[in-house]
Write a structure and sequence with these properties.
The protein is α/β, with parallel strands linked by helices. The chain has 15 helices and 13 strands. α7 packs across α10 and α8 packs across α13.
């Protein structure tokens, strides 16, 4: 019988600054009950990536963190390094978080005495190789895991259609720490002053990776439509990514350079959200969007598309305003409605904060994930063979 904590290896491969999954993984590791779980976070890092800095966040959170450098995406040298970590840390569960680490988790389960687990955060890449090869292969792999955590019901249904057994796939929405994200009067003043945004301007905007699925082009289009009725309106988009040049050109083409601010990737997300009077999500696709959770937590009113798990976070008209994805004219209408009735917007923001403190708190999510890990290890112990493959 087990006498010590369950030892979990959180395994992830990502380039650049990462995204929402990084917050979930690292903050989850920091907040796990140490008497029941010993968590090690391992990132496979491409040596050519000069932007990667997740080790700094792990250090601030005091997380047990290791990196495995790779020379390229198919570097066989990562395999002995992974096996060494599993053995030296006496890992029980290897938890994959993307198509590469999902495969590695299954392979480790065949060679080491570990149990595989995966969280499906979604499939947001747009390259042909990802869409036609990696993502279908990942969904096929996930159907063979003993347990999978889906961050939205939409993702869960996608996995079931790909052959996954419903009993093995559990929807667990992302959560957030209400204490870390809370409204503080004046917290956004510094951001506005730094970017040259007037203190009395009404600012709408968003935070996220500048990638195609976020459809910031539609947000710019909707903003352009609303600002004709509200000349004092400003737009702030904070983030970086492959669409940065395209979005800058779009802003210039529409003559919005003086009132549209494309800030780079920022670590002061709480302050940025405070600088906004209205948070707008314009995405075509999402898992469970952390940026929406964060806006809800700091009581910034929200307008969002019904992409992915967003509709599970927000009840339309209660916690925010929802519109169909891909409809900039409806997005503009919702933005105008939120601006026109600030009292109703504030009521929705308060209701959103209450939802964060209860159903969508990080503690609620972590307790559910911990329960899944315990169930997984119990069932695995009953069926595991006496020896692992050498």
């Amino acid at each position: 019988m087990r006498t010590g904590p369950i030892r979990i290896l959180e395994l992830r491969s990502v380039r650049g600054t990462g995204g929402g999954p990084e917050k979930t993984i690292l903050h989850g590791a920091a907040r796990t009950n140490p008497t029941r779980f010993a968590v090690t976070v391992c990132y496979i890092r491409d040596q050519r990536d000069t932007v990667f800095a997740l080790g700094d966040l792990a250090a601030r959170l005091d997380v047990d963190y290791v990196e495995i450098p790779e020379r390229h995406s198919f570097d066989p040298g990562i395999w002995p390094a992974l096996r060494q970590i599993v053995r030296s840390h006496q890992i029980d569960i290897v938890h994959g978080h993307d198509y590469k680490t999902d495969l590695l988790a299954l392979l480790l389960a065949r060679t080491e005495r570990v149990t595989p687990l995966a969280t499906a955060h979604g499939w947001t890449g747009h390259s042909q190789r990802e869409r036609l090869l990696y993502y279908p292969a990942d969904r096929w792999l996930l159907a063979r895991f003993p347990r999978v955590i889906a961050v939205s019901e939409e993702i869960r249904q996608t996995l079931i259609r790909a052959g996954g057994k419903p009993a093995r796939i559990t929807t667990v929405l992302n959560g957030i720490n209400p204490a870390q994200f809370a409204r503080t009067p004046g917290a956004g003043n510094g951001v506005r002053a730094e970017l040259g945004i007037p203190a009395d301007a009404f600012v709408i905007g968003s935070v996220g990776r500048l990638e195609p699925q976020k459809r910031f082009d539609l947000l710019i289009e909707a903003f352009d439509a609303v600002r004709t009725m509200r000349p004092g309106l400003r737009l702030l988009i904070a983030g970086d990514g492959s669409q940065r040049t395209h979005l800058a050109e779009l802003v210039k083409c529409r003559g919005l350079e003086s009132i549209c601010f494309l800030a780079a990737h920022r670590t002061d997300v709480v302050e940025v959200l405070h600088a906004l009077d209205l948070f707008v999500q314009s995405s075509d696709y999402e898992g469970t969007p952390n940026a929406v959770l964060e806006a809800m937590a700091v009581e910034t009113p929200v307008v969002a598309t019904m992409a992915g798990g967003t509709g599970q976070l927000i009840d339309d008209g209660i916690h925010g305003l929802l519109v169909p994805a891909g409809r900039p004219e409806l997005l503009a209408d919702a933005i105008e409605a939120a601006i026109a009735d600030p009292v109703a917007a504030a009521d929705r923001a308060r209701a959103a904060r209450t939802r964060i403190e209860t159903d969508l708190s990080f503690e609620t999510r972590m307790r559910r994930v911990e329960q899944i890990c315990e169930e997984l290890l119990d069932s695995s112990s009953q069926s595991r063979p006496a020896t692992a493959v050498a």
